[in-house]
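Possible regression after last week's pipeline update?

I re-ran a chain I had predicted before the update to compare outputs. Posting the input and the new output here so someone can diff against the archived version. Not blocking, just want to make sure nothing changed silently.
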Amino acid sequence: MKILGIESSCDECAAAVVEDGTRVLSNVVATQIPFHAKYNGVVPEIASRMHTEWIDGVVKEALEKAGLGSADLDGVAATAHPGLLGSLLVGLSFAKAFAWARGLPFIAINHMLAHLYAPQLAPGAAAEYPFLGLLVSGGHSIICRVDDFDNITVLGTTIDDAVGEAFDKVSKFYGFGYPGGAYIDKLAKAGDPTAFRFPMPSLHKGDHPYDVSYSGLKTAVINQLDQFRNRNTVTVRPEDIAASFQKTAVEILLRSLFRAAEDTGLSTIVAGGGVAANSYLRSRLAERTDLRCVFPPLEFCGDNGAMVAGIGYRYLVRGDRSPLNVVASARVQGFKKRYP
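New output (post-update):
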């Protein structure tokens, strides 16, 4: 069963063809980074305009690389939520029209569930349910219990900023580069993670055992740098700022994640999202020999159509279909919490 997957939730215009949920026949990602880099962040109007200009060509390229025509497809899947509304509408509308014109079954996809499915695109990477999911990106920081590919229970999430957003904001302030996560990860390799001792959040109000917060860390790194300098740190180097920030940002995640693993008794962790490519996060999780940690291949950490097609197969083979009047939505309830 060959599924065309279309992803346009943010600034990556992507399409892919996946067979039987795991065999990637093609995976095309047209990145908009050069168009947003001078702004150090995604400009929604530019993103949606570029999707409109590129989507047809990207889908054609995905079919050509798979060696298929539209008549060879068995279904179409597209991201419907969450994301930038204008960008979502482009991919979703194109996918619905493509499916309708060819009489193909169509399914609308939750972007974060697709990220959680991404590790299954690597041979031998499937994890048995239930397991803990770690979804970390520019818009979300989610720790969840996963009982099936479309059945998750959110245990913890951010009460303010997402971890990827914090990476981008710190990188923008210090001029490290865009996207911030990749530049900070690279800089940190040459830095001292103990040069600055940035604070960990204390979520003592209400019931937040697995939640995370990044607004305080972001403020400390940008506005209060000298207050957290190690007494032995003589000079302030970009590499040390990056390494110290990255260490604290990841440890905030891991503190809640390891607590959830202990409390639930689940020993398998599956990660997804752009921040899942972070080398420090991967190395820290690799240290936990008592836990099995499953990551997507690097090419499937960022937004891509293969993860959409992969999870789309699971829905379609079960007999699920989405009506062609399904609408896009920018948010998903429960993926972010209020504090306290």
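Follow-up from reviewer: compared with the archived run. The beta strands are 2-7, 12-19, 23-31, 75-81, 106-110, 131-136, 141-148, 151-157, 268-272, 292-294. Marking as no regression found.
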